[in-house]
Amino acid sequence: MSEKDFAAFWPVFQEIVTSAQTYTIDPAIGFDDAYRLWCQAPLATWVAKDASGTLLGSYYLKANAAGPGDHVCNCGYMVAPAARGQGVARKMCEHSQTQAKASGFLAMQFNAVVATNTVAVALWQRLGFRIVGTVPEAFRHPQQGLVDTHVMHKALMR
């Protein structure tokens, strides 16, 4: 993702992060740190646009760990509020799995899926991810207080 694309995506990123309902990213993160986190630190970052060029969402792909754990990848997905419910997250997740396999990753793991984010949990499960662990009260939800997070995993090459 170019810096220009990230600048267009920035309002979506800010809205999602400042809502503090789904991501363990500091809500006060600035543009430069967010760009490094979302675009420079990962192996690759993609942006989803419709036929007219309207930004629908973005995701990144990176190794989940280093060294002996670098065969498992991790992704983060964000969908623009106006594009929710249109299959954008599904398409990005399917695309990310194809990209992960092409990059040699053997599995994909999501480290902290907020349990109250039931739409995401259900989507990931429909796409073949399993909850392999639950961390009690690992997330401070602004309305619901301390809530659980799930570790979700899917083998990509079997």
Automatic annotation (TrEMBL):
Residues of the N-acetyltransferase domain: 1-158
The keyword Transferase belongs to this UniProt entry's keyword annotation: yes
Signal peptide range in chain numbering: none
InterPro entries listed in its UniProt record: Acyl_CoA_acyltransferase, GNAT_dom, Mito_N-acetyltransferase
Keywords from the UniProt entry: Transferase
Domain of life: Bacteria
Pfam family, one: Acetyltransf_1
Keyword Electron transport: no
Single Gene Ontology MF annotation: acyltransferase activity, transferring groups other than amino-acyl groups
This protein's name: GNAT family N-acetyltransferase
Native source organism of the sequence: Vreelandella salicampi
